[in-house]
Amino acid sequence: MADRFYYGGQAVIEGVMMRGRKAMVTVVRRPSRELAMAAHPLAAVYTGRMRKTPLVRGIIVLIEAMALGIKALMYSANVSLEEEEQTSGWLVWAMVVLAVGVAVVLFFLAPLFLSKLFGIGSPLLFNLVEGFIRLAIFIAYLKLMSLLPDIRRVFAYHGAEHKVVNAYEDGAPLEVEAARKYNTAHVRCGTSFLFAVMVIAIVVFTLVGLPSLWLMVLSRVVLVPVIAALGYEVIYFGSRHRQNGLLRAMTLPGLWLQSLTTREPDNDQLEVAISALRKVVEIDQQPEEAAQVSS
User: Fold this and answer.
1) What is the distance between the alpha carbons of residues 14 and 80, in angstroms, rounded to a whole number?
2) Looking at the predicted structure, is the pLDDT value of residue 1 above 50?
3) What is the pLDDT of residue 91?
4) How far is Cα 71 from Cα 92, in angstroms, rounded to an integer?
5) What letters, b where the CB count within 10 A reaches 16 and e where it falls short, cover 220-248?
6) Cβ proximity of 198 and 260 under 8 Å
7) Phi then psi for 214, rounded to 5 degrees?
8) Tens digit of pLDDT for each residue in 22-65?
9) Whole-model pTM?
């Protein structure tokens, strides 16, 4: 029997992207209120053996989330502006590199240099302080983003995505009224993943110790994929053992953080998320030869 597949996606501008076994589907509400839909087949790297290999899969998933997410985001922006331009591959990867660079500087290098100001000599205490600063920057960043009206609408679509996935995994019908009763939080959310990354970073960087500054800077860059891989395994394991009380307790901080990145959606936003999930499930249920999709 085939392994169960866990659907998920992300919110975009006036829409939702859902990722399936074979394709990603983005549904966006046009200014005219009609729904626009784009379905793209997934590249082999996102569906092959490496995507299922422990530790390696975490790195693949991180790259996938950024590449597919930016592609879906740019599609949604074009639809919202009623433009029909196609996003070039080089531009997507350029934005992925830029996003990674900004994240490393903001969440890894900045906390390091701020922690150095305290002159702490204990590796454990230093990394606890660095971890606290990293988490504070992350929460402040999310809080500032939530003050922007356009981002608040994206967060509402994020809530719609979670509600619909929760409903589907509970066996409820993919209908607006059925999905509305479900929670806007989900254990596999990227927000929970980032929280896990920040906690694991404390442990990993403590093992590095307090070498020279340039080695510490280097460790904050080259060890990011390792930390991301470990973070994914934690979320992967926790999402499959939700009945365990200890694991449920460990996921609570990540679920709490989602209160900053999700909002209660309206019926129109739920309809968009349902349309995206319905389509991606439909594609997955088609025979291989019939599942070739394009925008």
Assistant:
1) 7
2) no
3) 67
4) 6
5) beebbebbbbbbbbbbbebbeeeeeeebe
6) no
7) -65, -30
8) 999 999 999 999 999 999 999 887 877 877 788 888 888 888 88
9) 0.87
C-alpha–C-alpha distance, residues 146 and 155, integer Å? 8
Q: With helix as H, strand as E and coil as C, how does the chain read?
A: CCCCCCCEEEEECCEEEEECCCEEEEEEECCCCCEEEEEEECCHHHCCHHHHCCCHHHHHHHHHHHHHHHHHHHHHHHHHCCCCCCCCHHHHHHHHHHHHHHHHHHHHHHHHHHHHCCCCCCHHHHHHHHHHHHHHHHHHHHHHHHCCHHHHHHHHHHHHHHHHHHHHHCCCCCCHHHHHCCCCCCCCCHHHHHHHHHHHHHHHHHHHCCCCHHHHHHHHHHCHHHHHHHHHHHHHHHHHCCCCHHHHHHHHHHHHHHHHCCCCCCHHHHHHHHHHHHHHHHHHHCCHHHCCCCC
Rounded CA separation 55/140 (Å): 30
- Taking only Cα atoms into account, the Rg of the chain, rounded to an integer number of angstroms, comes to 20
